[in-house]
Specification:
Elements: H1 3-25, E1 39-40, E2 58-61, E3 67-70, E4 75-78, H2 87-92, H3 99-108, E5 114-118, H4 124-127, H5 130-136, E6 140-143, H6 145-152, E7 161-163, E8 169-172, E9 175-182, E10 216-223, E11 226-231, E12 248-252, H7 261-275, E13 279-283, H8 308-321, E14 325-326, E15 328-329, E16 335-336
Parallel strand pairs: 1-15, 4-5, 5-6, 6-7, 11-12, 12-13, 13-14
Antiparallel strand pairs: 2-3, 2-16, 3-4, 8-9, 9-10, 10-11
Helix pairs in contact: 7-8
Bound molecules: zinc ion.
Zinc ion binds next to loops.
Length: about 350
């Protein structure tokens, strides 16, 4: 065989292997139906009827950690990410909110009753749509200086912007909300900006990497005797939650499977074991490069980002050992908060 032929074969094999690896990495890391026993609602066909409006406190999950709390009177939104740009858009082009989509969300979910949007941190998959929400609604936007600079990029009025004051309770109707300083998921190669800030108004479209983390926060929500904690990221500040007990915990599990066994154990001990919730609802596990309307049900992250089946199973096992109940919300239907 001559050298040229050998090189051609080697190169072809290399290209073929690369394509095979890439195809594998972009596959969903399992299917949520594997966890049917924990899904709410269990039957996708009942989803449209599930949770019609009532004066009970409900929550709708829109993927990542965008959660809409509603007591029939007022609404609170944790994080604001509805426009879900595709992976190729995110990697190769600037991202921006879709005003028409936000208009539809406002109509479909009656967001005129929205009192506030509270942001866990300023990465685009948590905060991309806050400027557009603030443009279309007279809603208050609560977040770090970086988060407020995302809103300022769309000239949102300063009286709509509320700078987070850690550990100070804010009141919105019957909701009392306290921001707790927190820790982001450990950095990755494309997500290595922890502690960096957005120091000027950020106009869209902008590269996803311009949405700097700007510090992370958890939100403790108290509503008529019920206590809820929303932790968007897979990170903790040691003993930060020591003296808090909650009924429902929304717990970020992105990249949990990629951490060491010690990290996983410590994370779950410092959250589920410490807060002693009755119900644990995982968040930040869905493939957020899939656009709205959300797939029914949401799909797991591809292998390139996490092994979601493993992260989910780790969370369920730990939760059940603590005699709590794990509930997986897979689409934006109203779930009655326990
Ligand atoms: Zn983040």
């Amino acid at each position: 065989m001559n050298l040229k032929k050998t090189m051609t074969i080697t190169l072809s094999l290399l290209v073929f292997s690369l394509i095979a690896i890439l195809t594998f990495l972009l596959q969903p890391s399992g299917h949520v139906q594997q966890f049917k026993a924990w899904m709410y609602p269990p039957d996708i066909k009942t989803a449209s009827r599930a949770g019609s409006s009532s004066d009970q406190l409900t929550v709708r999950f829109f993927g990542v950690s965008t959660l809409l709390f509603d007591d029939g009177k007022d609404q609170l939104l944790i994080d604001g990410f509805f426009t879900r740009p595709s992976l190729s858009q995110t990697l190769f082009r600037p991202v921006q909110s879709d005003p028409e989509l936000i208009q539809h969300m406002i109509k479909d979910y009656d967001l005129k009753r929205l009192s506030a949007v509270l942001i866990s941190h300023s990465h685009y998959d948590h905060a991309l749509d806050i400027a557009e929400l603030g443009t279309q609604l007279p809603v208050r936007i609560v977040g770090s200086e970086s988060t407020l600079n995302i809103a300022r990029g769309a000239q949102i009025a300063e009286n709509q912007l509320v700078l987070i004051q850690p550990l100070h309770a804010m009141q919105f109707g019957d909701f009392h909300v306290t921001a707790l300083p927190s820790q982001h998921t450990p950095p990755t190669a494309v997500n290595n900006d922890l502690g960096e800030v957005i120091s000027h108004p950020l106009q869209q479209p902008a590269r996803f990497s311009a949405f700097k983390e700007g510090h992370s926060f958890d939100y403790l929500i108290e509503h008529k005797g019920k206590k809820i904690l929303v932790k968007a990221s897979t990170g903790i500040m040691p003993d930060q939650l020591k003296h808090i007990k909650v009924d429902t915990l929304f717990l970020g599990i992105a990249q949990l499977s990629r951490q060491s066994p010690d990290y996983q154990q410590h994370y779950l001990e410092q959250t589920i074991a410490m807060l002693k919730p009755k119900v644990v609802i995982p968040v930040h596990w869905d493939n957020f490069w899939e656009a709205l309307p959300l797939k029914q049900p949401l799909e797991f992250l591809p292998y390139v980002a996490d092994n979601t089946s493993k992260s989910m199973q780790t969370l369920i096992d730990f939760t059940e050992k603590q005699h709590a109940k794990a509930v997986i919300l897979t689409q934006p239907v109203a779930y009655p908060v326990q």
